[in-house]
């Protein structure tokens, strides 16, 4: 009898154990089995792998899509070699057969090409108006239809590809021309390519030595953004990092002292909920956030700001930050920045401008006047992943005072920020952020800017603003529609109620409001179940649920706006 470690099962065993339960042994025999023709090879592979060991179908589509057989090189060490090639079957391969596995190049290239095929098919479908924006399933349905749980045993590459297809099958096509649900929409091809490159490079932004090009591109891009804001020569500082809450914490951290302070910000739509989150994270509490009154369009009222500043100072507190907004989330309102800047200067208060949504208008000569006064801010947030269509995420904090971020945040971690390095240490950016490690977010913006130029971004922004005006003109006098506020929107936010025929002649009373409250949620649910389009809704103050339409997708057209209105009417006429 053959001893352990020899004979049939010992072939392909890396440790010579020949253990038939060892996955590497079975995989090696799977490779050999593929040399057989007429389907015998696959049957042998299944036999050698062991049917009982095959994982159940998880996270994949019930019908296998596309061929999983590819040509692969042999497993010898001769390069190049003249050995006969064998068929590569993903059903018998695992991630351990890919690089850095020995001779894993061919399997890796084949696998990644198939992944790329899946991605490219999804990209093409995203722009096809005949496809659904969403294939909606309720959470319990998705949980029951597929096994999403994590297991001890590895899945095959065939199953991994199936996981990819399934994930995209139920993903929202945010690049679809009829997706209007969020401020971040669209799918830019150059930005997508840049994101792929960034993931391939897989590095960190904390030191120049491990991200030389990316650090320099961040320096160049942030300087250009500060120049566009209006700071002389693009002077100042900045960083790309997670959104508004992080930035509020960062800015407040510059200013927090050892006594009770107040963050003064505008009331209602003129502040983002992340400001309160930032105050909570800082430990000064949400009660330290003072809400300033706004007008009917959602703009901060400067006189009320000054009144509240005087009020809290008389109580012995120290107001230290005013957070104005350039492009509010719901109304798209722009606070009167020059007047706010005058007040901040008078009382020596830091002025922060949240231009996460509205910052993109700085790229447009036609619309940048809406941010007049932003150059007087001490700090600005600007999210290119919103109006400029850069793939998520891409958020910038820009500070007028150079060196402030470093002096406030540096902790001199000697294992990273050695002071005797052989290059300019100012390019080691990790010590000027609250966090150390940072994802490379700048390359997407930089490459898109190179591809479009400033004039390309300008055209994109102008188109979205024009589409918003088209929508406003389409519905402002249309039967069954009522605007949430009078006048043309400042941004691409168009807020309105759809009033079904059954409510149009009702007296404007509590019963009518209670019924109108339910209209937008029902229409939105039907949109998602049909998969035809998506648009957001919300209540605000004493206003019941209304649609908040935003346009940031450059793929959208007048026809898509027409479709949205027709779809709302189709789905809501019976309510």
TrEMBL record:
GO terms, molecular function: glutamate decarboxylase activity; pyridoxal phosphate binding
Any one GO BP annotation for this protein: gamma-aminobutyric acid biosynthetic process
EC main group: lyase
Disordered: annotated segments: 1-25
Cofactor: pyridoxal 5'-phosphate
SUPFAM superfamilies in alphabetical order: PLP-dependent transferases
EC number from the UniProt entry: 4.1.1.15
Record flagged with keyword Cytoplasm: yes
Key words, A-Z: Cell membrane, Cell projection, Cytoplasm, Cytoplasmic vesicle, Decarboxylase, Golgi apparatus, Lipoprotein, Lyase, Membrane, Neurotransmitter biosynthesis, Palmitate, Phosphoprotein, Pyridoxal phosphate, Synapse
InterPro entries according to UniProt: PyrdxlP-dep_de-COase, PyrdxlP-dep_Trfase, PyrdxlP-dep_Trfase_major, Pyridoxal-P_BS
Compartmental location: Cytoplasm, Cytosol; Cytoplasmic vesicle; Golgi apparatus membrane; Presynaptic cell membrane
Modified residues (N6-(pyridoxal phosphate)lysine): 386
TM stretches of this protein: none
Membrane-protein topology: Peripheral membrane protein; Lipid-anchor
GO CC list: axon; cytoplasm; cytoplasmic vesicle; cytosol; Golgi membrane; presynaptic membrane
PANTHER family xref list: GLUTAMATE DECARBOXYLASE 2 (PTHR45677:SF11), GLUTAMATE DECARBOXYLASE-RELATED (PTHR45677)
Recorded family membership: Belongs to the group II decarboxylase family.
Subunit structure: Homodimer.
Primary role: Catalyzes the production of GABA.
Name of this chain's protein: Glutamate decarboxylase 2
